[in-house]
Amino acid sequence: MERTLAAKFQILRARIESDLTPRSVILVTSALAGDGKSVTAYGLANCLAQAGRRVALVDGGATARSVNPGPYPHEPANMPIVPLPFNELETRQLGSSINTFVAKMRSEYDFTVIDGAAFMRSSVPMLLASDVDGVLLTLRLGRAESEDDRLMSQMLGSAKANLIGVVAVSADSIAAFGPPESAAQTGVRSGRLNLSTPAKS
Q1: What is the helix, strand, coil percentage profile of the chain, to 5?
Q2: Which of 138, 113, 150, 149 is nearest to 128 (CA)?
Q3: How many CB atoms within 10 Å of residue 197?
């Protein structure tokens, strides 16, 4: 991760640490796929680990295993990347499985960052949102707000999820990070953390 990018992810880390106490589980999600969830989850988890926190990065994809070996540049020694131990096909026990998993991660790590599936493609992010300590949304810059975005907002509200921020990620940054999602630079714009890459002149 380049120095400028890493430094800007520290802004996000500082905000997270000011809003949440240790033993927190954070879900990173978005309404649609390709909005920069993986780069945001990886960058945040990596910065927390570099600050000396015990951190786990979790694959929140519905089929589990989309993360490892997945799109991440590498797995730092002090930041394990693990899959969710369940998927949405386990409908009868899914709620109980999520409760147990979140409690386990709280007991073992200072911070757990879940790289979630797209909200409108799986039931798992909605169930996770009700149990985790904070939800961080990502949005690809330049993408028009969709009906899925509005529906997700309503669903998060009804679940009484703790929305801790919105991260805007540029399409160029997403493409640069690696398949299927990606990386970016950060700044502050209109109350959002902006992970966009400056245009070249």
Answers
A1: 40, 20, 40
A2: 113
A3: 19
Strand partners, 194: 168, 187
Contacts of 149 (CB under 8 A, 6+ apart): 31, 32, 139
| 17: its two tokens | 């640490």
- Residues 72 and 90: their CA atoms lie apart, in Å, by 27
Q: How many whole angstroms separate alpha carbon 17 and alpha carbon 84?
A: 24
Whole-model pTM: value is 0.81
Q: Give the Cα separation of 62 and 171 in Å (integer).
A: 24
pLDDT of 150-194, one tens digit each? 999 999 999 899 999 888 887 766 666 654 333 333 333 323 444
DSSP one-letter code for 129: H
CATH topology of domain 3-195: Rossmann fold (3.40.50)
Tell me how far apart the alpha carbons of residues 140 and 16 are, in angstroms, rounded to a whole number: 21
In angstroms, the CA 194 to CA 152 distance is 20
Residue with tokens 């990606």: 182
For the record, the structure tokens of 19 come out as: 């809003």
